[in-house]
Amino acid sequence: MALRQLHSMSPCSKYTTQSHSVPLNISTGYKLKNFLEVFCFSHIFTEAIIFYIKMEIESVLITGANRGIGLEIVKQLVNLPKPPRLLFATYRDKSTVQALEEIRDSSKQTQILLIQMDITNSKDIESARKTVEDLVGAKGLDLLINNAGVLKTEGFPEIAGENMLYHFSTNTVGPVMVLKEMFPLLQRSVAHKTTETDVFRTTVLNLSSLGASMGKMRVENPDKWLQGLGYRTSKAALNMAMRMIACTMKDSGVLMVNLCPGWVKTDMGSNAADLEVSESVSAIFKTLSQLNDSHHGAFIDRNGKTIPF
Ligand SMILES: NC(=O)c1ccc[n+]([C@@H]2O[C@H](COP(=O)([O-])OP(=O)(O)OC[C@H]3O[C@@H](n4cnc5c(N)ncnc54)[C@H](OP(=O)(O)O)[C@@H]3O)[C@@H](O)[C@H]2O)c1
């Protein structure tokens, strides 16, 4: 097959843009959306209802949840109209979990479990899977958010091999290994969703970065774009790894998406960033509620717009 043809293909045949013709749970949301719009509800009202229904998530795991975007994801999840029943929030260092503990202790509807997991440590990942498995049981895991990531800017030629490996180990290998370990639990979630009322699609959301886009990397870009060689290449590798897995697991029913949250005011993004963390995460949730088969294996921004690989 010609390379050009391969590149222009949807990542896998089953997940085409004709989501209406695919007999998956998400189609229920579309039928409902059409129904509401036909019967003269306003677009905004319809979107709000769809968001409410589609965001009924039973269980979710977020890596790197003790600060930044991960912590805000936890905050907003527990404040959903129908929050998850089970939320697994991972951290590395016990001394950094105060904010998470406060949310856990005040959460009324969601059982929040704090799990120590370094995503570069296979024993930690396995032990986390056991904890999750014990609690989710046959219902499986509905949503995995691969959020943990690192950034230490270094450009060429000063970059050290250690810097490259540091980024690849956390930003590429870690999320893939977490997904590998959790995949059977995600499959259980798919298998368990048999009724027409289960609208939220079992999903893997990978936090990527616009900075990983080769299509956007040009000579005329500002010099600062050229810093973060390890970070950008490791996120580009993450995109490819997750796109390949999306193709490999095309019949699994698990939706996999790579998403850039925007430039966000966190320790990583710095105070100079464009977006408050709450703005970024609200947009991510709105997009999450609107994902369909066409997004499988895709690279999108927080508003759902396609980013060139
Ligand atoms: N902020 C932005 O502007 C921006 C832009 C594009 C993409 N992103 C992506 O969004 C995600 C979250 O970014 P952020 O801004 O929230 O970053 P952040 O504030 O620096 O937080 C990073 C989180 O990842 C965790 N982490 C790092 N290495 C880990 C490891 N080996 N195992 C487990 N957890 C680990 C950190 O835990 P510790 O507290 O233990 O270090 C922390 O919880 C990242 O994947 C990032 O690349 C961010």
Automatic annotation (TrEMBL):
| SUPFAM superfamilies reported for this sequence | NAD(P)-binding Rossmann-fold domains
Concerning InterPro entries, the annotation shows:
Fungal_SecMetab_SDRs (IPR051468), NAD(P)-bd_dom_sf (IPR036291), SDR_fam (IPR002347)
Among its keywords, does the record have NADP? yes
Which keywords describe this protein according to UniProt? NADP, Oxidoreductase
Kindly give the Pfam families that the UniProt entry links to this protein. Answer: adh_short (PF00106)
Gene Ontology molecular-function annotations: oxidoreductase activity
CDD domains, A to Z: carb_red_sniffer_like_SDR_c (cd05325)
What does the entry list under GO cellular component?
cytoplasm
Q: Which domain of life is it from?
A: Eukaryota
PANTHER family found in the cross-reference section:
NADB-LER2 (PTHR43544:SF7), SHORT-CHAIN DEHYDROGENASE/REDUCTASE (PTHR43544)
Q: Which family does it belong to?
A: Belongs to the short-chain dehydrogenases/reductases (SDR) family.
Name by which UniProt lists this protein: C-factor
> Organism, per UniProt?
Larinioides sclopetarius
User: What broad taxonomic lineage does this protein's source fall under?
Assistant: Eukaryota, Metazoa, Ecdysozoa, Arthropoda, Chelicerata
